[in-house]
Amino acid sequence: MHVHILQHVPFEDIGSMAPWFKARDARLSYTRFFENPVLPDLAGIDLVIAMGGPMSVNDTPDLEWLVPEKQFIREAIEKGIPVAGICLGAQLIASALGARVYPNRLKEIGWLPVEATPRRADVFSFPDTCTVFHWHGETFDLPDGAVRLARSAACENQAFQIGRRVIGLQFHLETTPESARALVENCRNELIPGPCIQSEAQILAVPESTYARINTLMGDVLSYLLQTP
Fold first, then answer.
1. What is the pLDDT at residue 119?
2. Where do runs of H (alpha helix) occur along the chain?
3. How far is CA 15 from CA 90, 181, 184, 205, 223, in A?
4. Across the beta sheet with 159-162, what order do the strands follow?
5. How far is CA 168 from CA 43, 61, 97, 186, in A?
């Protein structure tokens, strides 16, 4: 299995997905846009993962590589290659497919609940409610043909699915204690008081079991995308 990862900043890597892929002898390759924005040929790639980052999908005047990245994501979807998007990655999928990305009415930062939207047998099922890790200030409209999978009180579109091979997550299920600390250290300026913004202490105080629950769910998402329909 060949997995290609679109990484936007050094401090947002794949977290708990790394051991998940290692256990399955997956080959990982990267486009690290902060180093070299070269994208590979899609031939032979079995899964594309678009990770998070503090930039916006609308920053194309300053970050020219966003344009070919969106085209790469769109082509992967058109070829039927499984695609997972996390936070900025979900927004990139939405934008690549023509949906609008814009500031959410509230920023969500920290451990906050999401709830599953009405279930359908033909899409991935989240738990009725679960506490997940958030760090976002923007949201998106659902692309054409997308099914909403989860919502929160502050953000209506928290997760979506397109067909059988594409899932976008506005929140982070891959977060580990190490990656949570890295986000806090690099984005501490965003931790200003707000209705859905937790303090540094609150973010870092959760027990290992909280990480374990979301990491298991991340593995479930990956397994779902990689199953043969």
1. 78
2. 17-22, 66-78, 88-96, 177-186, 200-204, 208-226
3. 17, 12, 15, 18, 16
4. 27-32, 2-7, 47-50, 83-86, 166-169, 159-162, 146-151, 101-116, 129-140
5. 22, 24, 12, 24
Structure tokens at 77: 């979807």
Q: Which residues contact residue 72 at a Cβ distance below 8 angstroms, ignoring those fewer than 6 apart? A: 6, 39, 42, 48
The predicted structure's pLDDT at residue 71: 98
pLDDT recorded at residue 115: 97
State how far the Cα of 194 lies from the Cα of 176, in Å rounded to an integer. Answer: 24
- Give the residue from 90, 10, 96, 98 showing the smallest Cα distance to 49: 90
**Which CATH code for domain 2-226?**
3.40.50.880
Q: Which is the catalytic residue, given 87, 108, 136, 155?
A: 87
pTM of full prediction above 0.85: yes
Catalytic residue of the set 4, 8, 136, 172: 172
Residue ranges of the chain whose pLDDT lies below 70: 228-229
The reply to whether 208 belongs to the active site is: no
Q: Contact, 140 vs 92, CB < 8 A? A: no
What confidence tens digit (pLDDT) does each residue in 39-96 have? 999 999 999 999 999 999 999 999 999 999 999 999 999 999 999 999 999 999 999 9
Q: Is 172 a catalytic residue?
A: yes
Active-site residue, 155 included: no
